[in-house]
Design a protein that fits this description.
Chains A, B, C, D: This is Ergothioneine biosynthesis protein EgtB. Chains A, B, C, D: Keywords: Iron, Oxidoreductase. Chains A, B, C, D: Pfam families: DinB_2, FGE-sulfatase. Chains A, B, C, D: InterPro entries: CTDL_fold (IPR016187), DinB-like (IPR024775), DinB/YfiT-like (IPR034660), EgtB (IPR017806), Sulfatase_Mod_Factor_Kinase (IPR051043), SUMF_dom (IPR005532), SUMF_sf (IPR042095). Four copies of one chain form a homotetramer. The first copy, chain A, is an alpha+beta fold and 427 residues long. Chain A is 31% helix and 11% strand. The first copy, chain A, has nine helices and eleven strands. The first copy, chain A, has a four-stranded mixed β-sheet with strand order 9-8-7-10. The longest helix of chain A is centred in the middle third of the chain and has 31 residues. Chains in contact: A-B, A-C, B-D, C-D. Chains B and D meet through helix 3 of B and helix 3 of D.
C-alpha cells in the first residue's frame, strides 16, 4: 500500500505540498544577489546556491532518477551537488563549495524548474511507486532542513562581510515581556520516547527518532521558559567567560583560543546584536541564542542548574501543540513571549524561537535501523561527537518539527539559533 | 566520622596500602632507564618520570600540603607537575612534558621518598583529619590510574622508537582457546546503576559513578566473551577498513587520513603485534585490543550487532566477582580464556584483559555532584566528547576497577588496551 | 618641473593612456559573470572584482584623495580594498577576499566610473600637481600588474571548478616550431644594471630597478630560447620528479607533500593542458610554463646547466627590442617561435611568452631607496624569500615590461606563466 | 697525490687532529646528564646525544665504511643517525630525534669509541686512501659545526625548561668597553671572492665557498664593530618592534604572530638575558646576539644603514687574522672588546663573538660544483630560502672559520649566536 499518495486526492495534496516547499526555498533566496548566493563563510556553512542545487539534486537522484529512461540533467552536477552520500559516489569537497561560480544561480534556478516539472508530471500521471513517493516526502523534509541552514548560513556570511548588511529590511518585529522563571515539576516515570519507524508507519519521522522505546525519566523540574538575554548578560557580567570552573575542559579551551566573550552575534557592549534584519538593540526579554553547547552548559552550571536530557524535554513536549515563533512568522529572530494568559503549569516556547541544547549526546535509540539503501547515510553515521537540540527555532519552517524531532550539532557550533532551558534533578 | 582511618588498625592498613601502591609505581618504572622515562611520544601520553612525579605532587598538594607549617619541597615543581587543575594554578603545557630533563629521574625518586616519608609519618602520628585521609585514599586510586597510563604510554614510546625494544623480556605468557561465541539474553528491567557517593558512603568510588539511579535497560542479548583477534582479522580480510558503510563519518575520515588498516600495534601481515614483551605472533584466540571506538563500532556493525550500552554492561557485571587478567598477573597483554569449566550462563572476561568500548557517550548521571573543592576538576569537566569503556584491562591494577567504574577516552584513542564485546537488541 | 604632464599635450596623452588602461581591465573582466568575478581559489589569488576595485582604490587614495575637499566615495571601502599598505591603515584579510559579495560587481564598476570621471576631470583642468601625476602614472603601471594577476588568478579559479570552463573560447592560436637549442656566449664584463630612479629621471621604472649600478657578469653561455614542452616532458619521463638529487631540499619536500608530477595545469597523460581557452593538446614546441622555481631549477640541473642570474639576463636583454607574445596579442598562452629569419646570434622570446625564473634571490640593489611616503611599501618590504623572474609573459600587457623590470614570486609559486631559459658558466 | 696524509708525519698530525676534535665533542657533552642529552626542544634543534652519534656515523659511513670487510657497528643505526643524505637512504624523521631513548647515551659513547679506535687504527697502518683521508678531514669540519649546534641547541633546551638551569656555572667572564662606532670606507673594486675548490686545492674549504670568482664590490662604508646591546636596546625603546615600517613584510608577520619584543633570550625588563652560564645582567657594551635576520635588518633600517653584503664582508676580512672570541676561550657568550690599542683603520670582532647577518641570500657561486658523490648533498641543496652569516661566534671552535666561510640559516632563526654589523653605500 502506498501510504503517501495512494489516492488521486493524496497525490494532488502531495503535489501541492511539493510546490509550496519548493517555492519557499526560492522565496528565501529572493533577497540575495547571485554574488550573495555564492558566499561560503566557513566550511560548516554552504552557499545559498548550493542549498538550492543540492535539494534539487536530492529529488533528481532519489525520485526522478529512478524512473525508467531518465537521463541526468547534467552528469557533472551529481559530483557537485552530492553532499555526503559515499555509497552514491564521490562528492565535491565541502570547504570548496564557495568556489562554484559555475553553474550560475540562473542555471541552478533553471535546474530547479526542470526537476520540479518532472516531479509534478510524474505525480500527475501517477507514475511514482510507493518507494519513490516516500523519497519524495523525505526530500521535502530534507529541503525544509536546508531552508533553515540557508538562513543561518547567509546570516553568518553577511556578518563576515565588513559591511555587515541586513538580509532583509522588512522583517516583522514585536515586543513582549519574559514571564518570571518558574520550575515545573515532573515525577519519575517511564516515558515512551520516539516515533514509530516511517515509512512502515504512515506518519513521517526521521530514522533517528525510531523506534519508540521506553525510558525511565527521573524526578526533576524544568523551567517554564528559555533563558533570556537579560539573564545571560548577568552571567557575562558576573565573569562567566573568565572562570574556568563553569566550563567543560574543551569549552574552556575554546573560550581562550577563540576569545569568546559573549554570544556569537553580540557586540562587545552587550547591547547590540546582529540579526537577519541587521544590527539591533538586544531585547532583554527575548530568549538568548547563538550559543554553543559549551556556553549553554556553562550558564546552567553557573545558575546552579543543568540542561534537561532529551528525554525530559520530549516527555513534557509530547502533550503540547507544536506552535511557536517559526520561520513562517517572518520574524526570523527569537522574541519574548507575547501571549496573554499562559497556563502557568505549562512550559512556554518549547517549540520555535530557539533550538534548546540538551545534555544528551547524539546516539542511536535501542533497535535503531537507518533508512534503507543509500539514504541510510542520512543520519546514522553522525552519531558520534554531536549533541542533541530540540524544539525548532525562529528559522525552522512551521510544520517541520515535532516532539520527537532530534536535531544535532557539534558542541562548538554557534551559528544556529540555539539557546537553552534550565532543569534540575529532584534527588 | 572518619570513614577511612578511624582506628589505629585502619590507619595501619591505610599506611600499608599506601606503601604498596607507591612501591608498585617504582616497580613498573624499574625496567626503564632515565632516558626511557623521559620520552613523550605524543601529546596524549606522558613520560614515565612525569607520572612518578605528578602522582607524588598529588599527595604533596592534597594531603601533606594542607598540614600546618608545610613548606613545599620545591615551589617550582607545583607548576611542573600539576596536570590540569586550573583552580590550583597554571600548569606546564602538556605537550612539553618530554622536555623536562630536569628534575632528573633520580631527583624525582628522591621527591617520591620524601613525600612518602611525610605521609607515613603523618599517618603514624594520626595527624590526618578525615578530609586528608579521603584525599589520601583518592590519591591512591589516582596513582593506580597513572600506573596503567605509565604502561600504555611507555608501550607507545618504545614502539615509536625505530629499534622497537621490549619493555620487559620476562613477562608471563599463557595460551588458551576462545570459547564459541554465544548470546546471553537479558529481559527488560529497571537497574540500579552506579555507586553511592563517596566519601559520604564508605566504599570508594569516583564522583562520576554517582549517584545511584534507576535506569530502564531494554531487552537485549550480550556476547559471552570479547571479540577475538581471529574474528577481527576476518573483518579486515573482508575489507572492513575499505568500506565507508561500516563507519561513523568521523571514523571514516580517520581511516583515510591516518591510513588505518588494522589495530594500532599489528603489522601489515596481520600476523604479528607489538606488545610490552616485544614483537609476537598474534594469538587468534585472545581478545583483540588497541582499537579506537570507531573500529570497535565498525566491527560491530559489520557483524550485524552493536556495542552494549554502559548500563547493559553494568547490569550484567553487578553480579560477578571482579576477577580477571589484571596487571598484577604480570602478563600485561590480553590472553585467551584458560578456565576449565565456565558457567555457560555467565559472560567471561568482563573484567581485565581489555577495556570494552560501550555505545555510551560519557556524561553526568542525574544528580551528579563533582568532588568538593579543587578535586571537582578530577572527572566532571571531561564530560563532553569522550566515550565510556568498562571493565579494566591487563594493564589495570587488580583491585582498581569495579562494576560501576567508568573509564573514558576520546573515540579516536587507540593506545589503550581497548577492545569490545558485542550486543544486540531484542525488539 | 612636472615630468609627466607638464604640457597640455602631455596631459592629454596621459588622459588617453589612463582611459586605455582602465578600459583594458574592464575588457579583461567582460567574459566573466558577477559570480566568476568573486571566486578566490587560494589565498595567493584575488577575485577579479577585487582587482577591479583595488586598482580604483589606488587612484582614489593616491591621486583623487589628495585633492582639497575630496570626500571618499565610500569610507568603508578603504578597508576593503587596501591591499597591504600598513602605513595607511588596516586592511581586510587577504584570504577573505572571496567572501565579499558586497559591494557587488555592478557597484564596483560604478565605483570605477566615478574614479575615472574624477581623474579625467582633474587632468582636464590641469589640477594635478607633479606628485599627483607621478602617482597617477604609477597607478597605471600598478593596474597593468593587476591585469596580469587577474588573468592568472581567474585561470586558477576556473581550473579549481570541477567543470573547468574556459575563460574565453575565441582566443587566437598559432603554431610554430621551436628552433634547435643553441648556446650564445658572453664574455666577462662589467654591466650597468638597472634603471635610473624615477621620478627624478623621467622614464618610468619601479623603485626596485634602481639605482643603476655596475655588476661584474662572468663569462657564460645562455640558451637562444626558453625550454620547450617537449624538452620538459623528457625530464618528466626520465624520472625527474622521482629523484631527489635534482632538487633543492625544500623543493623535494614540496614534490612529495603536494604530489607534484608535472607542471601545474598538465594532466597525467602529459598530453593535455588547461589554458585560458580550456583544455588543449600540449604544443611540444611551445615554451613550458606554470613551473615553480624549484621545477625550473631541477630541470636545469638535470640538463647539466643552470638558470641565468638576473644580471646575465638583463645584460643580454638590454640591446633587444621589447617585443614578443604579450597579452595584447590575444593568445594568452605561450607559443612556439613563428618568426621567419631569426638572427642566430640573438636570443629569442626573451620578452613575452613566459616569465623566466632566474637564479637570483630578490634583494635590494646597492643604494636602493623605496618610493617616498606610503608607496615605499610597494616593493621593498618583500625583498626576502622571493625569487626574480624576468621578461614578461603572454599575460603581461604590452608596454609594461622592460629589460630592467624585476618581477618576483615565492619559489613555490606555480600559477604564473613562468618557465625558464638555460645558462652555463664558462670556467 | 694524497694532499692530506701523504707522509707518516702528516698521518700522525691528522690522527692528532682527529683525537682532539673528537675529544672536544665529549667535553662539550660532559656537563650534561643522559636526560639533558636527549632533549629536542624544537624541530630545528637536535639532542646532544644525536649530535654525538651523527658525527660518529659520518665517520663510519664515509671513512670506515668504505674499507674492505667493514661490518656496520649496528645496521639499524644508519637509519637513526643519517641526517639528510637521501642518496644514502631513508632517515629517521628530524622532529622525532628527541624520542630516541635508545640507544642510550652510554651506548652512543661506546659507539664513538669504537669508531675512533677503527679510524686511528686505519690511520696508523696507513690504510686510508686519498679519498678516505679527505672524507676524514671533512668529517672533522663537520663535527666542529655540530659542536656549535650542540651548544646552541642545548641552550635552547635548557631555556625551554621552566627551571632554566645553566649549562655550566664556571664559564669565564670578562668586561670591556665598546669602542665608539666609526665608519670604515672602502672604494669600489673588483674582489676575488671565495676559496679554491678543495680537495683539488690543498687548503680545506666547503664546496659552497668555491670557486674563486671576481665580484665588483661598490664603494661603501662598514662599521668598525658589531652593534652593541645598548644600541639595540635603544631601537627597542624607540618602538622598533611596534612599527611596521622598519620590517620586511614576512618579518613583521612574525613579530605579530610570535609576539617578538626583544632578542630571543632577553627578559621583558631588557636588563637580563639567559646565557649558557644562566641568567645574567645584559652587558650594554657586548655585541647584541640571538637576532633573526629580520631583526638585524629592521635595526639597520631604523639606524639609517643596511647590512653589508657577504662580498663586502669578505673583502674586508681577507686581510685580517682569524682571531677573536671563539668557543675555545670558554666564555661561550659574546663580550665587549677588551683590546688595548685597536688599529682605528681596522674593523674589530669580525671573527668570533657573533655571526654577522649579511644582506646576501644564500646561493651558488658561478661555476659552483657540489662535493662528489653522496656528500654533494652537504651544502648545495639548501641554496634557497636561507641567508648568509659570516665570521663565526663565541660558540664556534677556533680554527673552524675563515674569511671565505659561508654559514647560512633561515631568516627567522634566532637561536644561533647571530648579530650584525652596519654598512652603508656611498653613492
Amino acid at each position: 500500500m502506498n501510504t503517501v499518495a495512494a489516492t488521486p486526492q493524496a497525490a494532488r495534496a502531495l503535489a501541492e505540498h511539493f510546490r509550496a516547499v519548493r517555492a519557499r526555498s526560492l522565496a528565501l533566496a529572493a533577497p540575495l544577489s547571485a554574488e550573495d548566493a555564492m558566499v561560503q563563510s566557513m566550511p560548516d556553512a554552504s552557499p545559498t546556491k548550493w542549498h538550492l542545487a543540492h535539494t534539487s539534486w536530492f529529488f533528481e537522484r532519489f525520485v526522478v532518477g529512478s524512473q525508467p529512461g531518465h537521463a541526468p540533467f547534467n552528469a557533472d552536477w551529481h559530483y557537485l551537488f552530492n553532499s555526503y552520500y559515499q555509497s552514491i559516489g564521490p562528492a565535491h569537497a565541502r570547504p570548496q563549495r564557495g568556489l562554484l561560480s559555475r553553474p550560475s544561480l540562473e542555471e541552478v534556478r533553471d535546474y530547479r524548474q526542470r526537476v520540479d516539472d518532472q516531479v509534478i508530471e510524474l505525480l500527475q500521471r501517477d507514475a511514482l511507486d510507493s518507494q519513490a513517493c516516500h523519497q519524495l516526502l523525505l526530500g521535502l523534509h530534507h529541503e525544509q532542513q536546508h531552508q533553515e541552514l540557508l538562513l543561518t548560513d547567509i546570516k553568518h556570511a553577511l556578518w563576515c562581510n565588513p559591511l555587515q548588511p541586513a538580509y532583509r529590511d522588512d522583517l516583522k518585529r514585536s515586543t513582549g515581556a519574559a514571564l518570571p522563571m518558574r520550575w515545573l515539576p515532573a515525577e519519575e516515570c517511564i516515558v515512551e520516547i520516539g516515533a514509530p519507524a516511517w515509512p512502515a508507519h504512515p506518519a513521517f519521522a526521521y530514522d533517528n527518532e525510531s523506534p519508540v522505546h521506553r525510558v525511565l525519566v527521573p524526578a526533576h523540574v524544568v523551567a517554564n521558559r528559555p533563558v533570556s538575554n537579560a539573564e545571560y548578560r548577568a552571567f557575562i557580567l558576573d565573569g562567566g567567560y573568565r572562570q574556568a570552573a563553569h566550563w567543560m575542559s574543551e569549552g574552556w579551551t575554546l573560550v581562550q583560543n577563540e576569545g569568546w566573550q559573549h554570544p556569537l552575534y553580540w557586540d562587545d557592549s552587550l547591547e547590540r546584536e546582529f540579526t537577519l534584519g541587521g544590527w539591533r538593540a538586544i531585547d532583554p526579554d527575548a530568549p538568548v541564542c547563538h550559543l554553543s553547547y559549551f556556553e549553554a552548559d556553562a550558564y546552567a552550571r553557573w545558575a546552579g542548574a543543568r540542561l534537561p536530557t532529551e528525554f525530559e524535554w520530549e516527555a513534557v513536549a509530547q502533550s503540547l501543540p507544536v506552535q511557536g515563533n517559526f520561520a513562517d512568522d517572518d520574524h526570523l529572530h527569537p522574541r519574548a513571549f507575547t501571549g496573554e494568559s499562559a497556563n502557568p503549569a505549562q512550559p512556554l516556547q518549547l517549540f520555535g524561537d530557539v533550538w534548546e541544547w540538551t545534555s544528551s549526546a547524539y546516539g542511536a535509540y535501542p533497535g535503531f535501523q537507518p533508512f534503507a539503501g543509500n539514504l541510510g547515510e542520512y543520519n546514522g553515521k553522525f552519531m558520534c561527537g554531536q549533541w542533541i537540540l530540540r524544539g525548532g527555532s525562529c528559522a525552522t519552517p512551521a510544520g517541520h518539527v515535532r516532539a520527537s524531532y532530534r536535531n544535532f550539532f557539534a558542541p562548538s557550533a554557534r551559528w544556529q539559533f540555539a539557546g537553552l532551558r534550565l532543569a534540575r534533578g529532584l534527588a
